[in-house]
């Protein structure tokens, strides 16, 4: 019956069962699993956040190709570029900012490595490449529909780079605070209000 009625079109395209795909992922390296989890987070964001927004009047105008953002959403005010990231896992558990910290960690850099014309790494994001970051809280919550948001320009800058590059690791509070919220449209309003600040960097002790 599964051969006649595959559960996803990719099974037919690749001529493979979903069970075999899952088995391949389970046998893969941590790096590969991290990439798969990132793709799942993007799909979950599209289903649980983007689709309801579209039903309320937003438009999904995400272009094809490789961009420093994952989604481009547009309402009557204008466009918003969103980058979706995962809470960092370390040894299969959510990584904390410090040993006794109430903050988790998100890694904000591009998956692909490379060098620019001056020999610098192209992995770090630059401020201005996206407007809002949406961090999947699945590692700590077990829920793919939970995201935490902040304005991209509020993120910690990379030291010694003239505040042009976004620091790779960013602290994520275990509950919403003045810097991070659980509502995409609240984050967008903060963006459009033009508030200039930097998120709080907690102690690592």
Uncertain stretches: none
N- to C-terminal distance: 56 Å
Strand-residue proportion: 15-25%
**SSE-based structural type:** alpha+beta
Order of strands in the sheet with the most strands? 1-2-3-7-8
Mean pLDDT: 89
Helix content: 25-40%
Largest sheet: 5 strands, mixed
Characterize the overall form.
globular
Order of helices and strands: HHHEEEEEEEHEEH
Q: How many whole angstroms does the radius of gyration measure?
A: 18 Å
Number of E-type strands: 9
What's the helix count?
A: 5
Tally of domains: 1
Helix/strand layout:
Layout: H1 9-14, H2 18-26, H3 30-55, E1 59-60, E2 71-74, E3 79-86, E4 89-90, E5 93-94, E6 103-107, E7 132-136, H4 138-141, E8 147-151, E9 169-173, H5 184-193
Parallel strand pairs: 3-7
Antiparallel strand pairs: 1-2, 2-3, 4-5, 6-9, 7-8
Structure in words:
There is one protein chain. This protein is of the alpha+beta class and 205 residues long. It has one domain (17-193). It has helices spanning 9-14, 18-26, 30-55, 138-141, 184-193, and strands at residues 59-60, 71-74, 79-86, 89-90, 93-94, 103-107, 132-136, 147-151, 169-173. A hairpin with a 4-residue loop joins strand 2 (71-74) and strand 3. The longest helix is centred in the first third of the chain and has 26 residues, at 30-55.
């Amino acid at each position: 019956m599964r051969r006649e009625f595959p559960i996803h079109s990719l099974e037919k395209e690749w001529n493979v069962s979903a069970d075999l795909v899952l088995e391949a992922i389970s046998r893969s390296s941590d790096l590969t699993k991290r990439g798969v989890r990132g793709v799942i987070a993007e799909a979950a964001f599209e289903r649980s956040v983007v689709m309801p927004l579209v039903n309320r009047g937003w438009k999904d105008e995400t272009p094809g190709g490789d961009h420093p953002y994952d989604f481009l959403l547009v309402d009557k005010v204008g466009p918003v570029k969103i980058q979706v990231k995962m809470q960092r896992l370390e040894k299969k558990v959510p990584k904390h900012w410090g040993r006794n910290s109430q903050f988790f960690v998100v890694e904000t850099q591009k998956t692909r490595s490379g060098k620019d014309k001056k020999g610098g790494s192209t992995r770090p994001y630059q401020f201005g490449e996206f407007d809002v970051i949406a961090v999947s809280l699945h590692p700590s919550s077990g829920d793919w529909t939970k995201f935490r948001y902040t304005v991209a320009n509020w993120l910690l800058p990379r030291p010694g780079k003239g505040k042009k590059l976004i620091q790779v690791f960013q602290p994520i509070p275990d509950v919403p605070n003045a810097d991070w919220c659980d509502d995409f449209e609240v984050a967008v309003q903060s963006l459009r209000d033009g508030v200039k600040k930097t998120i709080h960097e907690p102690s690592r002790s």
